[in-house]
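New to this. Look over this protein:
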Amino acid sequence: MSAETTAKVFFKEVILTHGVPSSILSDSGSAFSARFFTNLMRLMNIKHRISAVGVARINGLAENLVKKFSQLAKIYSDNDTEIEQAIPLMVMSLRATAHTKMQLSSFEVVFGRKMNVGGPNFKENLPNFNEGSDYFNWLTHRLAEIHRAARENKIGGKEEDKRGYDKHNKLNHPPMDCWNKGFAVR
């Protein structure tokens, strides 16, 4: 993909949907490092950070997304010429799928409800609203609940990951009261 195509997609899919970000993180691909794209970032006052090659903590999410996108391309299209027509369904699928640890989809985090993907068992449980302000108040509270739950799930996930890392690497932490007394037990 060329830098110009990348910039057009970035403008259409990110800026027009979410506004101008303060920063972005990308890999060091030629589309992101080309003068056209870097000048666009500078003109829009967007801090553009480039990730280190082969660092799983940075690139893991992006690589996982590419893997899922490739899998969906095989499901939704029979050949390369059909992929472009299948992209909207692939994006919808990704947005509707709940994160394995947080148990929330990106759609739900943004809109405060699960995405209606159809099907016989889908029932949307939205209250009835008499006025626009009723919906606004409900949505404000619902999004606050979802964002709080997402933060808690993220913190819990980090704690779980740390326990797994410590166990895998056989790390033992001294009791906290030892640190408070000014010495550590070996």
Notes: The helical segments are 3-18, 30-33, 35-43, 56-76, 83-96, 106-111, 132-168, 176-180. DSSP finds eight helices and two strands in the chain. Residues 56-97 form one domain.
